[in-house]
Specification:
Helix content: over 70%
Number of domains: 1
Distance between the termini: 44 Å
Largest sheet: none
Number of strands: 0
Number of helices: 9
CATH class: Mainly Alpha
Shape: globular
Oligomer: single chain
CATH topology: Serine Threonine Protein Phosphatase 5, Tetratricopeptide repeat
CATH architecture: Alpha Horseshoe
Length: 143
Amino acid sequence: MDAKSLEKIELEIAIDRERYLINCKKHYSEYVAAAQTLFPHYYKLIEDRTYDTPLVDESIRLKINGDVSGEIKVLQKAVDMKYDIPYVYERLAILYGKVKQYEAAQTVCKLWFDSIYWKIPNMSTTSLRLLKRLEKLNRRLEK
């Protein structure tokens, strides 16, 4: 990956998240290579980590059982623990929206975009949905 391409990608990250996320999907291999160069600490963390997702498993069980409040509690705990699984943030934002806790939903989306996780290309599809949700929440809360 040449320096000019990396600069272009860094600029997208800084000023146009949507374009960056779309390009992650369109030019996946190039953007993965760039991300590995720009965020080596994240990829090292993944190498060293064994994925243990009991909170995700529990949230899915609660979802199947229709326990919205229990699911919110479990997903919020996962967010508080800084899980790097976009499903956690997306599902929690959806649930907060369903119970009309729009500020809480907005906060969850912002936490995702305050993290490094949204910048990782294999998370771009969910990150793009979370970006759209955040924009919608921002408009709703500005009224």
